[in-house]
Amino acid sequence: MTEDRLPIVFTPGVGGKLAMFVIPGLFAVAGVVKAFDERYSEVKIGPFGYIDGHTAGWLVALTLGALSLLGLAMLVFRCPSLTLAENGVVVARCFKASVNIPWSALADITVMTARRRGRWRTEVVDVIYLATNDGRQVTPGPLGKAEDIEATIRRVAATKGAALRAG
Question: Which overall architecture, per CATH, does domain 79-160 show?
Answer without folding.
Answer: Roll (2.30)
